[in-house]
Structures are given as C-alpha cells and as structure tokens.
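User: Second chain of the day. Same drill as before.
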Amino acid sequence: MKTHTWIAVAALGTIPAALIGWAIGQQQPVEPQVVEDVVAEPPAFPDLSLGPRFPGTWSWSELRGGECVMPYVSEWEETFDVVNCLTTHQAEFVRATLLSSLADDVYPGDDAIREFAIDNCADWEQDDLDRGERFDDLIVTPSYSLGLDAWQRGDRLVGCFVARQDGGVFTDKLVVE
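Assistant: Same format as last time:
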C-alpha cells in the first residue's frame, strides 16, 4: 500500500510542475530591442559677424560682442541682460572671438584658453574708446569657458567685459568696434 501512496504523491507532484512548465512555454518570446547609434550633432557656434544681440536675456555662449549689459554682476554669469547701448548700462561685452569653429579641433587646454583670453583683453588703446578719458576707473576683464565638455558643446567664445571699478554706469556706448 505504501508503494501506491508514493506513486500517487509522485504523480500529483508532477502535475503542478508540468503545469508550470506549460505556462512558461506559453509566454511570448521577448524580441530583442533595437539600439540606434546616437550620432552627436556637431556643435553650434555663434555667428559673430551678425553683430550684437538685441535687448533681452542671453546665455553667455550666445553673446557676439558689442552688447551692453545691465545689471553687470561679474564676467562669470551664465546669462546676461542685454540692453540698448544708448541707455544706462554697467558693462560692455567686446572683442568677442571664437577660439575655433572647427568641430574636430583638439581642446587646447585650460591654461592656453586662459592665456589667450587675458592677452585678448590686455592692451587697450585710447582710440578703442569713445571719450574714454571721462573715466578713471575702467576695468577690463576676460571672460571665457573652460573644460573639455564646454569645448565639445561648441562653447569656445572668448571676450572682454569693460566696466567701471566702482560699479558705475555708462549712458552711451563706450567701446568703439
């Protein structure tokens, strides 16, 4: 009698196992997902030949040179409020230069960019300013982006902010370009 009990237990135990195996076999096969190659878009560079941006809020990398800024906090802000240069403003963004507009150019390194920016803003002639002798507190500070990520995004702009050391204002365009 014991043998028949074990046979019955074994038979009953195989039925759930068979049902589980059947259910698993009925599931739809998983189709492989297609992974598309992501092609990086080439960086976009500002066209500096188009002249200054019109009044409004612009990111640092969108400036073209010749913009007047109000308020001016520092050269390291992410965005700037550009105003008409014939209105009160605290700074002018000038001598805008792209270090490179070739997407494949090798990143020159932080030190090289910093040195270029400092040199770009170092020498000012009186002829560069419209009645610059009115001010004895002018400061010129370089502005630039550093880092390989910024370079790969196309953020290769270098320029100078001209402002007054005491935070004073200009009421007309100071820098002649």
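The longest helix spans residues 2-26.

User: Great, on to the next one.
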